[in-house]
Amino acid sequence: MEAPMCPQEASELSSLKPKLEELGVPLYAVVKENIGAEIQNFKPHFAGEIFLDDQRRFYGPRVRKMGFMGFLRTGVWKNGFRAFRRGFLGNVYGEGFVLGGVFVIGPGQQGILLEHREKEFGDKVNILAVLRTARKIGVE
């Protein structure tokens, strides 16, 4: 299941692609499932390469989920309506309770330089923080 917030955040991250390319930093997405044409439908919103992790190895030993009660949170509804107003729609297929995240990962020993894990659906990363962190890659 793809929440409407996923394509919206992907689109915002994709707006950084020209600056990331200047810095030599690639843009990747890791998705957990591909039901129907889900990845094909996601591609117009994401300017980088998309990898399918159907065994969820990238998600670590403990997949972070928000249960059904999470839909009662006002923040989730606000984020959903914000995405809907901007024309981003999701789908209702698949497993939709896994929380996402954004990572900026440097080469070798640099490792994870920025880690944003959703606390609730639609909890977006600060785009400027992503760009600031990407500028640190290879510098430290």
UniProtKB/TrEMBL annotation:
<keyword id="KW-0963">Cytoplasm</keyword>
<comment type="similarity">
    <text>Belongs to the peroxiredoxin-like PRXL2 family. PRXL2A subfamily.</text>
</comment>
<dbReference type="InterPro" id="IPR032801">
    <property type="entry name" value="PXL2A/B/C"/>
</dbReference>
<dbReference type="GO" id="GO:0016209">
    <property type="term" value="F:antioxidant activity"/>
</dbReference>
<dbReference type="GO" id="GO:0005737">
    <property type="term" value="C:cytoplasm"/>
</dbReference>
<keyword id="KW-0049">Antioxidant</keyword>
<dbReference type="Pfam" id="PF13911">
    <property type="entry name" value="AhpC-TSA_2"/>
</dbReference>
<protein>
    <recommendedName>
        <fullName>Peroxiredoxin-like 2A</fullName>
    </recommendedName>
</protein>
<keyword id="KW-0676">Redox-active center</keyword>
